[in-house]
Amino acid sequence: NAGVTQTPKFRVLKTGQSMTLLCAQDMNHEYMYWYRQDPGMGLRLIHYSVGEGTTAKGEVPDGYNVSRLKKQNFLLGLESAAPSQTSVYFCASIGVGRGTDTQYFGPGTRLTVL
Amino acid sequence: GNSVTQMEGPVTLSEEAFLTINCTYTATGYPSLFWYVQYPGEGLQLLLKATKADDKGSNKGFEATYRKETTSFHLEKGSVQVSDSAVYFCALSDGGNTGKLIFGQGTTLQVKP
To answer: N or C: chain B end with fewer CB closer than 10 Å?
Structure first.
């Protein structure tokens, strides 16, 4: 049981390049989330999904797109990377949307945009 | 809207010292409250939680009590160890049925031998 995994762990992009971050979970969770972590700002929600085939915007969605074609995978795309998107990205999942439940986090992807 | 405010860090303590990390929140309704911990180079993991007023969450010697009258959820530990060095995040559930969390800005704890 690997939990939540993220690919890649590190990436360096040039301004304007595109990339996709992959999140996978093997816990059969319905809900998945993408956060970014910046110094002094905690974690901010980018997009989330409440089930296969669904996505919704979070607090900071601009410049990102997501897809949830399979229940176990949640992809985060950057179409045209900007230096402001330099950050650490975390994926998380939860069984259902109860507010009492624990979110399980992946190890993170450190992205640098030059 | 809902929000979480944590005391600014970094917090530097000597081993066996008493730890308090303050967390206050603003929310409508009755959110659940969480403390997550992030060890160096890792993702976040749940440390403890409380789902209703006056509940006390506890784990690994850490405790926090859900105080609705003061809208607080302060994290405490009686005797910290070097291995407790990490970033600590206070969070609340955003209500509804989305499972979304709102995080504080995080507090870095460094424990020196």
So the answer is: C
Mean pLDDT of successive 10-residue segments in chain B (113 residues)? 89 97 92 94 93 94 96 97 97 84 94 96
| CA distances from residue B9 to B21, B88, B109 in whole angstroms, order as listed | 9, 10, 7
Q: B33: which 2 tokens?
A: 């409250």
Tell me the shortest Cα–Cα distance from B4 to chain A, in angstroms.
10
The tens digit of pLDDT for each residue in A25-84 reads 999 999 999 999 998 888 999 999 999 999 999 999 999 999 999 999 999 999 999 999
What does DSSP say about strands A109-113 and A10-13: parallel, antiparallel, or unpaired? Answer: parallel
Dmax of chain B from CA atoms?
44
Contact list, B101 vs chain A (CB under 8 Å): 43, 45, 103
With an 8 Å Cβ cutoff, are A105 and B44 in contact? yes
C-beta atoms surrounding B24 within 10 Å: 17
User: CB burial class (10 A; 0-12, 13-18, 19+) of residue B66?
Assistant: buried
Residue whose entry in the numeric block shows the structure tokens 């990377």? A81
A18: tokens are 């595109």
- Answer yes or no: are the C-beta atoms of B38 and B87 closer than 8 Å: yes
CB atoms within 10 A of CB A112: 13
Closest Cα to residue A112, out of A87, A78, A80, A77? A87
